[in-house]
Amino acid sequence: MTSEAIASRTYPRFAVMLHWIIAIGVLVLLATGAYMVGVPKNTAARGLYFNLHKSVGILTGGFIILLIIWRSRHRAPELPATMPRWERTAAGWNHTLFYLLMVFVTAFGYLTSSFSAYGPKLFGIPLPHWGWDDPALRGRFADWHRLVAWIFAVLIVLHILAALKHLVFDRDGVFQRMLPERRSRSNDPA
Ligand code: HEM
User: Fold this and answer.
1) Do 36 and 84 contact (CB within 8 A), yes or no?
2) Does residue 185 fall inside a structural domain?
3) Is residue 121 part of a domain?
4) Low-confidence spans in the chain with pLDDT less than 70
5) What atom of ligand 1 comes closest to residue 127's alpha carbon?
């Protein structure tokens, strides 16, 4: 596979940047989320982790909205012709599910906070409550938030394994689609 063939199939810089910002945000959220629920209640540490989690979640949510807007106006670059049909279908489903899970996990997180006494906050700044202090509803949204977050985590593992398969075994340039363009390409006449 020539570098030109790969270059013609890479995502633009803006989409690559959003992908990696969201990827880092989601990994931080999975880690802080899993850890913070085990921190003893009514401690400063728990408040700190919850506020960090909510703030990173809301920021990541903003980038997710940008990605959805970008994706609704642009097509994904072509996949290599060598990629089998089942793999294209699996990738398509995985990506569609990713979008749904990203929206739902963020919305359920925000709703969990909205129905608690503490409310959603962005680095200490209170944001609009979509609800009121209601422990039963909060618990229900927390259950859904947890369920969606862990389904998302399983799909992320599959996504990473698939990307590594392309990098190590297939070597078809699919992995490189989501990397920033290499400097040498800036010499290409454009
Ligand atoms: C991509 C976005 C997000 C991911 C992947 C994520 C992930 C997680 C995870 C893994 C947990 C722990 C679940 C458990 O095992 O008990 C959690 C809990 C929590 N998250 Fe998120 N989160 C996200 C966004 C948000 C947002 C935007 C908010 C609020 C503004 C939020 C608020 C919460 C709260 C309040 C809990 C504790 C729920 C409980 O008390 O059981 N999350 N999150």
Assistant:
1) no
2) no
3) yes
4) 1-8, 182-190
5) 30
